[in-house]
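sorry to bug you again but im stuck and you know this stuff better than me. below you get a single protein, a line of residues and a line of whole numbers that encode the local backbone shape. mainly i need to know what kind of three dimensional shape the backbone takes. anything you notice is useful, everything is just below:

***
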Amino acid sequence: MKRELIKTIREKEVQLSKLKAHVDKSSVCSDLYNKVVLEKAILKKELEMLEENKFLKKVKSLIPHKKTLICDYFRS
């Protein structure tokens, strides 16, 4: 799954490099370029979510943490 995402992101980067030269020439190319940028961003976010340490995230949610109040900043 992770390798497939990385491969797809690289393919999107290649598409972007090819489209970048033609963005100013055509509105269709510009729209396609924007679409590919959006797709790449979505894929990168999915990759980030895969790489997150889910166990650590669950532990952090279970451990109560003290909330900082505004008045705490003014105490000496």
